[in-house]
Design a protein that fits this description.
Layout (H helix, E strand, L loop, with lengths): L1 H10 L18 E3 L4 E3 L23 E11 L2 E11 L3 H18 L8 H15 L7 E8 L23 E12 L6 E12 L7 E3 L7 H4 L9 H14 L3 H44 L35 E3 L4 E6 L2 E6 L3 E9 L2 E8 L11 H5 L9 E6 L5 H29 L15 E8 L8 E6 L3 E6 L4 E6 L3 E7 L7 E14 L2 E11 L16 H35 L9 E2 L7 E3 L6 E5 L3 E4 L6 E4 L3 E7 L7 E8 L7 E7 L3 H10 L4 E3 L3 E2 L1 H10 L1 H6 L4 H4 L4 H7 L4 E2 L8
Parallel strand pairs: 19-22, 27-30
Antiparallel strand pairs: 1-3, 2-3, 3-4, 5-6, 6-7, 7-8, 9-10, 10-11, 12-13, 13-14, 15-16, 15-21, 16-17, 17-18, 19-20, 20-21, 23-24, 24-25, 25-26, 27-28, 28-29, 31-32
Length: 747
């Protein structure tokens, strides 16, 4: 069947060693762009969005089989399509000859400085001269590709008057649809697609990247002819390259170094132009909105809230004059001073500690006082009058055998501080929550995914339930735990689909929210639904499972589970996109899912542990991290690679946001070998980026910028800090904010 052939072709990507003759292709370097498409039996779809069916392969007389496959090498896309004929008619052969003529004629136009519209016009002109009746059936001529499979601004049609540039990659695809054989009346279609690199280094102005025979003798049944003339030339070129002399290779190496130098100069020029554009944008924004100095906005605090008792008569009756007492209800500690109980509200206590000295137990209470440094903001100190007298510390000592009161008080204070902190946080979370619209339930049921787990956890135990798609949002429900969570489409900032593969044991669907919502008693700005398809634990009592039958069966079962759940999540993703587009008044509200480009992933530490960080079209994600790391590319203003010096194996990268009130985000411990690929990725996204030998004290730098944002913009913006042409001035200017990381001292 078509499905079976597609699965067999997709399986080859899991073990490229079997078919890669060079032996240089690693399994992690390649993946499929889409499920390989096999079409026959009269049903043909030449669109890029075609889907697969499960019909039997047609192998009868005058059968036409259309095969299409897309692959990613280190996340860069390619595409290939061929049409095969079994006992074809004369008419099929003639029409395929016209298609080949069109292909060869248009191929000559693919070179730098050529207009894209000229390719389409050449195709139409060739068809008119060869067989005008095929014009209504023509489908072409493809599109540009790169990290994205289909670049929307590089469609090869007659309306696109852009010029081809060296370095562009094209999916050159032409075909005839809805054809019908005159004698047998059998419907059929035909298509040819190849991937070309536009380059000025080749004499023809292009280089074929998918070297697969397309001549009639090679695609017709029992055909065993020679290659096309153009393929002979390409293969001859490869043979000549393999036999280059020593001096020729040295010449090529010199040219390669010169080309790298030119590219570095071009990149530096692009960064300067980009920095100037950002400076102009910032100046326009400041001129329009004005300078808003709200970076250090003070929070108001109601001092009356920390009054514990109105009078001494309100003290609890259980309190003793010579003992500490923790009043949970009033959130107060009663402390004996000169045989009198003195109340202190829990918000006045900074720290509490205990220690034993010579059999005595010592309990110390440190209180919040003015001019004292705090790890986090202390609203109590900012609220009370600063000219009052304050107690900074109280120490209590109990001899051996009389530790009970101090031990009980210590743990009571710790528990009370924790309880009050959680209560205040929960109250602030609820106050900051934006109320979502009511979910409109889709009658008859929409798309569903069952037996899903969710992050963050909604209860103390692992919650599993069903995720359903409705008219204006998603609903996750767990009947076992009595939980129901609604996520409105308008509140979804980003949606990410990550399938299970060699890098992940889970298939995930991650939703980043515009406004946080409550998950149990805590607010969250994300939800992640997942299924574990591979056991993450390993039995250390046994050896390798490859040499026993049970181990092989278990491995095969894991692969089947991966394919099954990947397909279930993929189908659900498509249904959610369709439902959101169908029932949305604004067509732009369609949920578009991000898919990770795993071939340009890199290791790093965005939080507390090293994880695999993966770019997508609009994000930089690490869904394995806890909590998941998600960075929106459009919010980034600057990226700086720090500690890029000789002798270090790792470097850091810091992202500065367009909203200067946000603290910069850093990812540390990135392998040095990933530096060039990350720079190329940033360049494709048009993000301003620089390299620094030392680490930057971003806290001081951002404070300097926030003090006078207008002055920062007028002095050149980021060019005033990181311009490579003014390195000496920059070093002198940043002397007070550049620090050396301890990691730099390691050799």
């Amino acid at each position: 069947s078509h499905q079976k052939l597609s699965d067999d072709a997709a399986e080859c990507f899991n073990d490229p060693i079997k078919w890669d003759k060079s032996g240089n292709l690693a399994p992690d370097d390649i993946e499929i762009c889409y499920d390989p498409l096999i079409m026959s039996g009269g049903r043909y779809d030449l669109k890029a969005s075609a889907t697969l069916d499960d019909k039997k392969l047609d192998t009868g007389k005058e059968a036409v089989i259309l095969c299409r496959m897309g692959a990613r090498y280190r996340s860069f896309c390619s595409n290939l399509a061929r049409t095969y004929f079994i006992e074809p008619s004369v008419e099929m052969e003639k029409n395929y000859g016209v298609l080949t003529q069109v292909f060869l004629a248009c191929k000559k136009i693919i070179q730098p400085q050529s207009k894209i519209s000229k390719i389409y016009e050449t195709a139409l002109g060739t068809i008119k001269r060869a067989n005008r009746s095929l014009l209504p059936h023509f489908v072409g001529c493809g599109f540009g590709m790169g990290l994205e499979f289909r670049e929307k601004n590089l469609v090869l049609n007659q309306k696109n008057h852009q010029q081809l540039k060296s370095g562009m990659v094209l999916n050159f695809s032409i075909g005839f649809k809805d054809l019908k054989d005159r004698k047998s009346g059998k419907p059929y279609a035909m298509q040819i697609a190849d991937t070309y690199l536009v380059t000025s280094e080749e004499a023809d102005g292009h280089k074929l990247l998918t070297v697969v025979r397309r001549g009639w003798e090679n695609v017709a049944f029992r055909g065993n002819g020679d290659e096309d003339e153009d393929e002979d030339e390409e293969l001859d070129t490869k043979q000549q390259a393999a036999t280059l002399s020593h001096y020729e290779r040295r010449r090529q190496n010199r040219e390669k170094e010169e080309r790298a130098t030119r590219e570095a100069a071009v990149r530096e020029k692009e960064m300067r132009q980009l920095a100037k554009r950002k400076q102009e944008e910032l100046l326009r924004r400041l001129a329009k909105d004005g300078v808003q100095d709200n970076f250090n906005e003070e929070k108001k605090f109601d001092y009356s809230k920390i009054n514990s008792y109105k009078s001494v008569s309100d003290f609890p009756s259980q309190a003793r004059p010579n003992q500490l007492y923790v009043d949970i209800r009033k959130e107060t500690i009663l402390v004996p001073i000169f045989k009198q109980l003195v109340p202190f509200h829990i918000s006045t206590i900074r720290t509490v500690s205990k220690q034993e000295e010579g059999g005595n137990l010592i309990l110390r209470l440190n209180f919040a006082t003015p001019n004292m440094k705090f790890k986090s903001r202390n609203d109590y100190i900012h609220a009370v009058p600063q000219n009052k007298h304050f107690i900074q510390e109280l120490t209590f000592k109990a001899p051996a055998g009389h530790h009970d009161n101090l031990e009980r008080s210590y743990f009571g204070i710790q528990e009370l501080r924790k309880r009050v902190k959680n209560r205040i946080k929960e109250k602030e979370d609820k106050r900051s929550i934006v109320v979502q619209k009511e979910l409109r339930v889709l009658r008859g049921g929409g798309a569903k995914l069952r037996d899903l787990s969710v992050r963050p956890p909604l209860t103390r135990r692992k919650s599993t339930g069903v995720l359903e798609a409705h008219q204006n949002g998603l609903r996750f429900s767990s009947h076992r735990d009595g939980i129901k969570i609604d996520i409105i489409y308008e509140n979804i900032k980003h949606a990410v689909f990550q399938k299970a593969d060699n890098m992940s044991t889970e298939v995930r669907m991650h939703f980043e929210l515009v406004n946080p919502i409550m998950a149990g008693k805590k607010k969250t700005n994300f939800f992640q639904f997942y299924v574990e398809v591979v056991q993450s634990s390993q039995d250390l009592g046994h050896g390798s499972r490859w040499h026993d039958r049970d181990g092989v069966l278990e491995e095969q079962e894991e692969k089947r589970r991966k394919r099954r759940y990947n397909k279930l999540f993929f189908d659900f993703k498509n249904r959610v996109s369709q439902i959101s587009e169908k029932f949305s008044k604004d067509r732009d509200m369609k949920i578009e899912y991000e898919e990770p480009f795993k071939q340009i992933a890199f290791k790093g530490v965005p939080g507390k542990e090293q994880v695999s960080i993966i770019p997508t079209q609009n994000l930089l994600i690490a869904l394995d991290d806890k909590p998941p790391f998600v960075l929106t590319i459009d919010e980034v203003d600057l990226a700086v690679m720090e500690r890029c010096r000789f002798g270090l194996r790792e470097f850091d990268i810091t992202f500065v946001f367009k909203d200067f009130s946000k603290a910069p985000l850093s990812i540390s411990a990135i392998p040095k070998k990933k530096l060039d690929s990350i720079k190329n990725w940033l360049r494709t996204l048009n993000i301003l980026h620089y390299e620094r030998r030392d680490a930057v004290n971003w806290k001081k730098l951002m404070n300097t910028i926030r003090e006078d944002l207008k002055l920062f913009a007028e002095n050149g913006g980021w060019l005033g800090y990181f311009d490579p042409q003014n390195d000496d001035d920059v070093v002198n200017y940043l002397t007070h904010i550049i620090v050396v990381s301890p990691a730099c001292l390691w050799w």
